Amino acid sequence: MNISNLPPLLQPEVSQLWQDFQAKASPEELPQDPPIVESLAKVWACSPFVAKHCVQSPALIHQADLLNVPSHYLQSLTPELQAIKEEADLMRALRLFRRREMIRIAWRDLAGWANLEESLKSLSDLADAMIEAPLTWLYQRLITQFGTPVDVNGIAQQLIVLGLGKLGGQELNFSSDIDLIFAYPESGETKGARRSRSNQEFFTRLGQQLIQVLNNLTADGFVFRVDMRLRPFGDSGALVLNFSAMEEYYEAHARDWERYALVKARVVAGDKAAGESLLKSLRPFVYRRYLDFNAFEALRKMKNMIDQETSRKGLNNNIKLGPGGIREVEFTCQVFQLIRGGQQPALQQRRLLTTLLELEKNQILPTKVIIRLQKAYHFLRLSENHLQAIDDRQTQTLPDDEINQARLAYSMGFDDWNRFVAQLIHHQQKVHREFERVIAPKAAPKPLESLQSIDSNSWQTLWMGGLDDQEKADLLLNGAGFQKASDVLAHLRQLLDSYTIKKLSRRGREKLDILIPLLIVTAIEQQDQDAAIHRSLKFIESVARRDVYLALLIERPHVLKQLVRLCADSAWIAEQISRYPLLLDELLDPRSLYDPLKPEALDNALQAQLTQIDDLEIEMDKLRQFKRANVLHVAAAEISGNFTVELVSDYLTAIADTLVRRALTIASDYLMQKHGQPFCVDDGKNRQAALCVVAYGKAGGVELSYSSDLDIVFLHDSRGAQQMTNGYKQLDNNVFFMRFAQRIIHLITTNTPAGILYEVDSRLRPGGNSGMLVSSFEAFENYQWKNAWTWEHQALVRARAVAGNPESMAKFESIRRDILSQQREPVQLKGDVCEMRAKMRDNLDKSTQVLFDLKQGRGGIADIEFIIQYGVLRWAVDYPRLLETTGMLPLLGRLAEYGLIDELACQQLSDAFRAYRGETHRLALQNKSALVEHEKFAQQRDEVKRWWAEIMG
């Protein structure tokens, strides 16, 4: 053994230990394996616990099987307990087994053979086995005395042991205590003994014996310190409860910190299936169906209590509880689990590192933050393990003696203590900074400079009724600048007197009284102060009964600021957030609010949100929430001026495409599970048939707006013989695809608590409303060649396959090209197009003597679209590149490029089209119809009418 590489301070002790070991060990007990020999000095220097036990029992080095990854503890331990008859012998066997395995785990960790994840998992697996094995032994012994506990049907019951904290998360420390909760399924009595006992008495006795076997300190030490204080009602509660009592407690009595405790709860021993059923029943208590922003306040209170205790006990040097310690990493992650876990099941994780990955995947925390927290957590937990491995003592406080400082620094790979401390502080500062950003309360919004003269309590006084009506009106009009102070005052009074507010809980009313003055101050900062206050107050009234939203706006003033700003800028956004307050979640990060997901990222983002969801209703709600959230980002980007109208439509269309593709996948999975896959024999080959979804209109032309519906047509490629599904309940392919399309429409149009996804119009299919909902490609192509009207070919100009397999989508595109490329007689074509436009104008134009209909009015959007469609139908036969796009503006560019329409005409039509669409978007964001005064676009209208007359005349 070479000790020269050790820090000088550690060399004498290791040298003496080695001499003592050699004096006691037999030749066979001396280590022979080179890796063990090479690592021995370091391990013994860093852990006197390991060294002293090896000196006391030299055979341990061979018995511990140091070179192998520890596994299957229960399989190793159970045979050792089979012959044991007395509890004292059981306790000794458990302690000796623990000593051997702890030496193996510590050795592998300190030698650098095991990474942190292996060590934590091994310690947790060891604890599981050392609870399960004695529980089985004690249970068998107890039923010989008291009989077997059974339920009302006479079926035997077992104790369920839940592990919480680091044991539950399979992240146990080297010398951690274990937090346990005991439960059993049902009340009842034992059977098989002369005197029956209640199940409660049986399992209480069993739990007491298990604690004693694990916790009692004997000559051989202890197994684990057992902490039962996290059970219902804590130390004053029953040691064991049945499932009904557990559920009642968590529903009626549990406190916020108990939600936090159950995040990591895991069945570690006993009846695993029954335990999982219990945890499933408790999940709604832990993970609320709504976004629970009260978690900020709850975790902050817990952290304040910990900080006070840390300060009182002088534990600021504690790497778990001190600033930037392990607990702050845990709180930073788990606050998001408590807030969002009910909405995003992927966050319902027990392991912290897994949770961090999910937070990154779901874009809740930036990647750079995740990396910082991962590195810090790894460093802190490794330090904690090495600190506890010194003497197998539960501590997270840094040593203040020089020799143990040397041990810890050396075990962590540092030459001296100061360098270790510098790295530790580096990580702690990063952790604390993120913790403060996420958990710590934020400062309230500051009033404008012009309001500094107003008493800071004036708005509170106004809201609480401390001013007379004249004083209130003066404050709102002269002090704050509202245009119609009387209307604002009336709205505030209406809110105060509303049934909703009068029914608030004390806690909810306290939050409202804090929030309303902040909201008034924030509204004053907006350009349109009156719109800001009225729309914001409507939102408050709609959510006041759910104080989690009030808590969010108080906790996160920047969210309040974004809310009021968006309400001021857009009546449509204000309405959306009022109807679907989950959208507040999107305001948490101002950086992402105005930076929507790129179209190519949407599929992965949606997939991440649907992971681990197997409930169709929840899945449908998720689709709707995904749409609303992403559309909100696009609207915010447009309002802020970051997006052009074309870019807005690109993004809105990409969102719709993503959701239609997902609806197709969901419908396909459902029907194929029921009926199998559709097959057909085509040209002698058996192949699978597929459905294709085609978008028409604005969806097809990549021109969607905020309230656009989806014009879609369904086509399938089944043909030939034996057109049947291959499942247990076979269907003719035509019936299968009919149900397929109906299922997709159902998924998109059903009104769930999250609203509808889109309105769907399928009347552009062959034959319209009287035609089949789904056509084969053959029938569709035949109809287009023989029966379709010119206006149906016009519609095909903007048709685009959006979902289906690549082959079926390519098949549609081929048919579309063939139909649109046919030679047409120009005069007849022009007459058909003009006739259809006249009919549309007669039926749809909402223009009046005062107002102009931007879409259907003469010189409006529809005129431009008809000119373009006429150009494509007339010239695509000679210019096939006209069929490479479905967008109106790109097509105008192509028509100008080929000289088919005058370049000036194309430029002016493009400018008018952009102006009209920009205005329709602005009006939509204010919940207004696409009608403007005649004078507003007089020049554009005249130009469009001029070119209509020249091109179509």
Automatic annotation (TrEMBL):
Annotated Pfam families: GlnD_UR_UTase, GlnE
GO biological process: regulation of glutamine family amino acid metabolic process
Region span, Adenylyl removase: 1-448
Catalytic activities: [glutamine synthetase]-O(4)-(5'-adenylyl)-L-tyrosine + phosphate = [glutamine synthetase]-L-tyrosine + ADP; [glutamine synthetase]-L-tyrosine + ATP = [glutamine synthetase]-O(4)-(5'-adenylyl)-L-tyrosine + diphosphate
This protein's record includes keyword ATP-binding: yes
Residues covered by the Glutamate-ammonia ligase adenylyltransferase repeated domain: 38-279, 560-814
Keyword terms, alphabetized: ATP-binding, Magnesium, Multifunctional enzyme, Nucleotide-binding, Nucleotidyltransferase, Transferase
Cofactor(s) of this protein: Mg(2+)
Stretch list, region Adenylyl transferase: 455-953
Keyword DNA-binding: no
Entry-linked InterPro entries: GlnE (IPR023057), GlnE_rpt_dom (IPR005190), NT_sf (IPR043519), PII_UdlTrfase/GS_AdlTrfase (IPR013546)
Sequence similarity: Belongs to the GlnE family.
Protein name, entry field: Bifunctional glutamine synthetase adenylyltransferase/adenylyl-removing enzyme
Organism: Candidatus Thiomargarita nelsonii
UniProt lineage: Bacteria, Pseudomonadati, Pseudomonadota, Gammaproteobacteria, Thiotrichales
